[in-house]
Amino acid sequence: MNSLKDTGFVIKRVNLFDADKFITIFTKNHGKIDVLAKGVRKITSRRSPHVELLNLINFQAIKTKKNYILTDVEVVSTSSHLKNNYEKVGIIFLICELVDKLCPVGVKHEDIFTLTKNTVNGFKINDSCGLFDFQVSLLTCLGFWDAKRKFQNAWEIDRFIENVVERKIRTKAFFKL
Predict the structure, then answer these.
(1) Residues 151, 12, 49, CA angle at the centre, nearest 5°?
(2) Fewer beta carbons within 10 Å, N or C terminal of the chain?
(3) pLDDT tens-place string over residues 124-137
(4) CATH code 2.40.50.140 region(s) in the chain
(5) Which residue from 1, 3, 6, 5 is spatially nearest to 110, judged by alpha carbons?
(6) Stated pTM of the model
(7) CB burial class (10 A; 0-12, 13-18, 19+) of residue 43?
């Protein structure tokens, strides 16, 4: 069996059966990967608080025939400063949705990992840290946008992202960002 040890942001969680979750983690060294976290929905699970959205975690997983299974997890940063405010929770969900929809599975993007980390840490210092700048930088790093060109406003960048992913950005409508 293959073993994987890395650091990453939890960007998506899907409940699976009664006690499990399927978690998407954007890692520093392996890009976006899907991991099965067995038993984290149980009330007695010690790992369940570690796999919250946008938590920066050190984790270990083993490769099975179908997917990775989470074996060990440790929280590095919880982004709790963002989770206390409704508007900031919307920003958390938007960052997670954009990284999940735009980044391909298994492709290493250390620059996007650093961008996400800097954006989350930037909200600790400045409440109006650039979500717009994050979106432009994300599109530029992935090659969807030329940095020399400028977006006129947030509406234009939203339409462009929706055209790239070929679906609506659900977080924007839900949180009215």
Answers:
(1) 130
(2) N
(3) 666 556 888 999 99
(4) 3-77
(5) 6
(6) 0.90
(7) exposed
Contact 132, 119 (CB under 8 A): no
The letter for the amino acid at 64 is: T
- Tell me the per-residue pLDDT of 25-39, one tens digit each, with 9 for 90 and over: 999 999 999 999 999
| DSSP-assigned beta bridge partners for residue 35 | 23, 68
The DSSP-derived string for 43-111 is TT-SSGGGGSTT-EEEEEEEE-SSSEEEEEEEEEE--TTTTTSHHHHHHHHHHHHHHHHHSPBT---HH
**Quick check: 70 and 50 in contact, CB under 8 A?**
no
Given a contact cutoff of 8 angstroms between Cβ atoms, the answer to whether 45 and 73 are in contact is no
The answer to whether domain 3-77 has CATH 3.10.100.10 is no
Give the span between the Cα atoms of 81 and 100, in whole angstroms.
Answer: 22
